[in-house]
Amino acid sequence: MLGGAALWVASRVLVTTIALVSQWAATGSLLGGRPFADLLARWDSSHYAAIASDGYAAGSTDVAFFPGYPMAARAVAAVLRTVGVGADAVPTALVLVAALGGLVAAVLLWRLAEVTVGRRAAFVATLLFVVGPYAVFLHASYAESSFAAAAIGAWYLAVRDRWLAAGLVTAVAGTIRPNGLFLLAALLVLYVVRRRAAGRRVVAWPVLGLATGVLGFLGYMVSLWVLTGDPAAWNTAQREGWARSTSAPWTTFAATVQNVLHHPLLSARPQFLLDIVFAALLLAAVAYFAVRRRWAEATLLGLTAVSLMTSSTYVSLARNTLTLFPIWIALGAASQRHTVGRWVTTGVLVVGVVLLTANTHQFTLGEWAD
Q: What is the rounded average pLDDT of the residues 96-121?
């Protein structure tokens, strides 16, 4: 597990160095006149900062952002103020919570891979995770790292047949991102598969423990209903704030192609192209797990793909692959089995570092980074 922590630290150093160099090249200053806590705080970070500072304002579309990450930062900010950190408490707290999430996610991914596919594969899987194309979001003031930590932790508990603990950690994931619902569905499939393989009854008390995983997501949806009077408040915020709604998959694809060709922000066009490429890779990964009868992993990836490929566009699809940890574990395992697997993982590593550099550069300068 120390290996996972070491790889995360190396990733942090790499991403911070790229960000500082990018600012220096663009502005002549390593921080570009911004506090260090704001170095990787762009785009959605401002919404998380507003929630951490003031909660959810009445009528605000900020309710589109789940409360787990910003409210954890709010608690950390309160502690920071007691030790003398003043106006910068919230940005610093957002950085600290994201950093802790990334560190825990890397450590848990190493451990999960170690117990399922071996120590050497665990190194490769964790390396690919922390220097992957969108690994900047393990360090940015975003919720990805916190969600990854909870999701991987829940899966690790599940493979150890600790179903109540897995359910409770899944509930935490459900307060951080809506993907917690997909995680719960996948863990329910994993529960059935493992119980049947062990010759044990599926309908038993442990499933009730796992079912607690719905409480995080459901609790936020109910609270929004109570606060706004709208049972679909989260969907309403998505539609009004970001024009996101459910579409037919062919309509979503066509809209994404239009963004590749005509998006007014030039830096967004290559990102939408990457979203299309990653959509194809995600579907290939779903097929890979399905063919190998890895139904839990196929469920997690499949539900994520359906959700992202039936939105208004593929926006953020590529970034969402960061937290799909079964992909990294599968690649780690493949690297130990045969020569082709080693060549594939080497290619993924090289492309990942190149895209990580480009995405970190763009994100740091406030350009589009999915």
A: 97
In angstroms, the CA 130 to CA 6 distance is 10
CB 131 within 8 A of CB 354: no
- Give the count of beta carbons closer than 10 Å to the beta carbon of residue 197: 8
* pLDDT one-digit tens code per residue, 233-261: 999 999 998 888 999 999 999 999 999 99
Mean pLDDT of 83-105: 91
Q: What is the mean pLDDT of residues 160-189?
A: 98
Please provide the distance, in angstroms rounded to a whole number, between the alpha carbons at the two ends of the chain. Answer: 31
Contacts of 165-169 with CB under 8 Å at 24 or more apart are 165/209, 166/209, 166/210, 166/213, 167/209, 167/210, 167/211, 167/212, 167/213, 168/209, 168/212, 168/213, 169/213
Looking at residue 87, its pLDDT comes to: 66
Helices within the chain (DSSP H only): 2-27, 45-54, 68-82, 89-117, 119-130, 144-159, 163-176, 180-197, 205-211, 215-228, 233-242, 249-262, 268-291, 295-308, 317-320, 325-337, 339-364
Residue 311: which of 282, 275, 287 has the closest Cα? 275
Of 346, 316, 320, 350, nearest in space to 331 by CA: 346
pTM above 0.90, yes or no: yes
Rounded Cα distance, 182 and 175, in Å: 13
CB 177, CB 304: distance < 8 Å = no
